[in-house]
Give the backbone structure.
Amino acid sequence: MKRVIKTRRLVLLAIIVLPFAVAWAEYADVVINMQAEDKGMSPVIFPHWFHRVRFQCSVCHVDIGFKTKAGASGITMDKISQGQYCGACHNGEIAWSAENCDFCHSGTPGLETGVEGGHKTAGPGYY
Ligand code: HEC
Ligand code: HEC
Ligand code: HEC
């Protein structure tokens, strides 16, 4: 009996909390610094909302294969140059090319991978 109640509570919690967690990430910015700073580059700021208003979630999270967890996709510059991940669009055709290092590597040194900002996204260069 007790276990049933606990499970129910957990399900309820998931139903109530999950959409907020997703919405928060959706509107904020994602800092990606798994290796950039170790390799001498500033952390990457990915303005999630800026992109989300232009593309469907599925374009990025299904077709391109970005994970829905900051830093989890294993993005590298080699893959970007080969047209994967950010390079699927930042190729000088759909959007400006990957030669504009500072547009993406715009974070303050020391920033950790994760979600920054709130529902008003601040975008690159603000952290
Ligand atoms: C232009 C591409 C793009 C679009 C469109 C997009 N996302 Fe994302 N999303 C990303 C990238 C890139 C990341 C970070 C992945 C990484 O760091 O490996 C991310 C991360 C996330 C995260 C994880 C944030 C965290 O807490 O770690 C969630 C949740 C998410 N997206 C949900 C959504 C939803 C919901 C939509 C549609 C409403 C959406 N995304 C649209 C590219 C996109
Ligand atoms: C369209 C966005 C974008 C642009 C433009 C860009 N990068 Fe990156 N870069 C990334 C992302 C995302 C990562 C993964 C960051 C991490 O995990 O720390 C990354 C990682 C890196 C890394 C560490 C991992 C690796 O692959 O070696 C280096 C070094 C790097 N970039 C250098 C550059 C240089 C130099 C330029 C300009 C010629 C550049 N980047 C332009 C998005 C970009
Ligand atoms: C589905 C296509 C797509 C993907 C994937 C994508 N971008 Fe973009 N991005 C765009 C477009 C389109 C623009 C607007 C370009 C313009 O204004 O000329 C843009 C603009 C940006 C900007 C500038 C935002 C501003 O305020 O002007 C940054 C920074 C950026 N992208 C970083 C990234 C990084 C980092 C990744 C990978 C983690 C990525 N993008 C993946 C399409 C994409």
